[in-house]
Specification:
550 residues; mainly beta; 24 strands; disordered N terminus
Length: 550
């Protein structure tokens, strides 16, 4: 205990720079897209394997961009000024211009800082609190649809090295065209607390408690995190599944190397019949689920300023208490799994490995890709037997100012072979709350996606996008483990989906955005139980939304 306390004190004292260890939500995409454009312009290099970034990390990028401000055009300068107002305190943490009075914190603003509903700052403590609201009205498949979300978010810091945050959102949807399964779209899955014929309700809560200094960020977190390349979705970890709590660590000891670690607690959805027990209410037992955990670690190498390569592995394990071996970040987890699976394959866990890469060209473009290997046998592959080769991959490109000034073009393709993410042990599938942790299209499917973004002025942007998705079936899980048995890609009952969309958005104030959108969809499905009837055929959706604080 004394040794652990000494190490902890050393970490605090050894903080040589301000860290601002508060995550900036991946749902607030504006600054992330700005950093990507600046990277494509080769002003900075944001080789980010994991998002969200901390506000301190974003501030460092903005400082670098500001140092070469003369290389920006007028629109980019306006955007930089906009984001500097958002991250002013993180960019200049040593500034002695403190608010210092609770009364001055209400609707505080200044020429350097943005307007905030409640803001307090002194030499020790920073605190921000604001409300969150989303109003959406739309026509989906000829039926009226509404969504109302309300809540609040707060974040703050103590001594610039300890950060905390919390976001809460209560959601309600009404209409005949509510997607109550949320399995076939990129929309984040939900754990419904209220589900009726024409209405549904659910809440979301995320937050973190982090410590950070110049080379490490670590702590407790329950955030929507993404791991790996991919704009439409990610193969390793996406925002499809509900967020889950985890122990988190990122080590960045030098510019060319970063190390990531997560140990998360998942919801298995598998009932533990022995632990389940009766209650005082008739026919209302207390249902206990099997324990389920997610472990990930990755090593990112940046050998040159325009190239990033990341290698890592994941483990899904269950049916036991958290295993200490998986809390040691630098072990080879596949070997750890073998050492504790003394009962043979029946006692093993679900492991995978991955490789991620991004490369910036000198022509204002980036090439990127991810390879996710659920299971692969090189020996069998060389013999021509691919029955146990279960992989998924994404590759894409994004270009900025290549064709037209202020235009960003993206093209992306993902393919996931049969059986990826699945497992014969129900509590060890690559899922949380019955939603995939990886790419939302799931196994035995592929997708091609393209999007064009054009910015008319600071905050005013139009997006045009299109995609085509093909999904096959899923036969009995026993065939996944049958040697010599190989289903062809897209085997089984076929589902085809084509989407085209356009969105016009304008951010009038910080966090206050209005949108007008239209989407055309055409869906066919040979499996009558997979797709809701109202989604089949040619359908149109159009509507408007107003959001603040999201």
């Amino acid at each position: 205990m004394k040794r652990n306390l000494t190490i902890f004190i050393f970490l605090v004292i050894s903080s040589l720079v301000y860290a601002q260890p508060v995550f900036h939500s991946v749902g607030n995409t504006g600054v992330y897209e700005f950093l990507e454009r600046m990277s494509l312009k080769r002003i900075i290099t944001s080789n980010e394997f994991q998002k969200p970034l901390t506000r301190g990390e974003i501030a460092q990028y903005l400082i670098k961009i500001d140092s070469v401000k003369a290389e920006l055009d007028q629109l980019e300068k306006a955007e930089l000024t906009w984001f500097e107002k958002e991250f002013y305190d993180e960019m200049y943490p040593a500034n002695t211009d403190y608010v210092g009075d609770l009364g001055d914190g209400i609707l505080n603003s200044s020429p350097e800082r943005r307007l905030r509903p409640f803001y307090y700052r002194d030499s020790l403590f920073t605190f921000n609190l604001s409300e969150s609201v989303l109003l959406t009205g739309a026509s989906k498949a000829g039926e009226s649809y509404q969504k109302l979300s309300w809540g609040f978010k707060l974040y703050g810091e103590i001594t610039h090295n300890f950060g905390f945050s919390m976001n809460f959102l209560e959601n309600s949807e009404t209409g005949k065209t509510i997607d109550k399964s949320k399995q076939l779209s990129s929309e984040t899955g939900a754990v419904f607390t209220d589900k009726k014929n024409n209405s549904a309700g659910y809440s979301e809560t995320t937050g973190s408690l982090l410590y950070g200094n110049s080379w490490i960020t670590t702590g407790l977190t329950k955030e929507f995190m993404t791991l790996g390349s991919g704009y439409r979705s990610q193969l390793i970890l996406s925002t499809k599944a509900p967020s889950f709590p985890s122990l988190y660590m990122k080590i960045h000891p030098a510019k060319w190397i970063s190390f990531y670690f997560m140990h998360g607690w998942l919801l298995s959805g598998v009932t533990d019949s022995l632990a389940t027990y009766k209650t005082e209410l008739v026919n209302q037992p207390r249902t206990i689920e099997r324990e389920k955990y997610y472990v990930m670690h990755a090593l990112q190498i940046v050998p040159t300023a325009n190239l990033s390569m990341t290698f890592g592995e994941t483990i899904i394990y269950s049916d036991k208490s958290p295993y200490l071996g998986y809390f040691i970040p630098f072990l080879f987890y596949r070997s750890v799994d073998h050492s504790i699976s003394f009962g043979g394959a029946e006692s093993g866990n679900n492991g995978s490995i991955f490789f991620d890469m991004s490369y910036y060209t000198k022509y204002g473009a980036k090439l990127y890709g991810t390879l996710f290997i659920d299971e692969f046998s090189l020996t069998n592959f060389l013999k021509g037997n691919s029955s146990r080769n279960q992989i998924g991959y994404t590759f894409g490109t994004v270009a900025y100012n290549t064709f037209i000034q202020n235009l960003t073009f993206r093209l992306e393709y993902s393919k996931i072979l049969p059986w990826v993410y699945s497992n014969w042990i129900p509590s060890q599938t690559y899922r949380n709350s019955d939603y995939t942790l990886g790419h939302y299209i799931g196994q035995n499917a592929d997708q091609i996606f393209t999007q064009i973004n054009y910015r008319f002025s600071r905050g005013l942007e139009v997006k045009l996008w299109a995609e085509s998705i093909r999904q096959g079936g899923l036969c009995e899980i026993k065939y996944q483990y049958t040697i010599g048995y190989a289903e062809k890609f897209l085997y089984g009952l076929r589902r085809n989906e084509t989407n085209f969309g356009i969105e016009l958005s304008y951010e009038y104030l910080h966090d206050l955005t209005g949108k007008v959108f239209y989407q055309y969809s055409r869906v066919t499905d040979e499996d009558s139980t997979r797709t809701p009837g109202w989604q089949l055929g040619s359908k149109s959706t159009f509507g408007i939304s107003l959001q603040y604080g999201l």
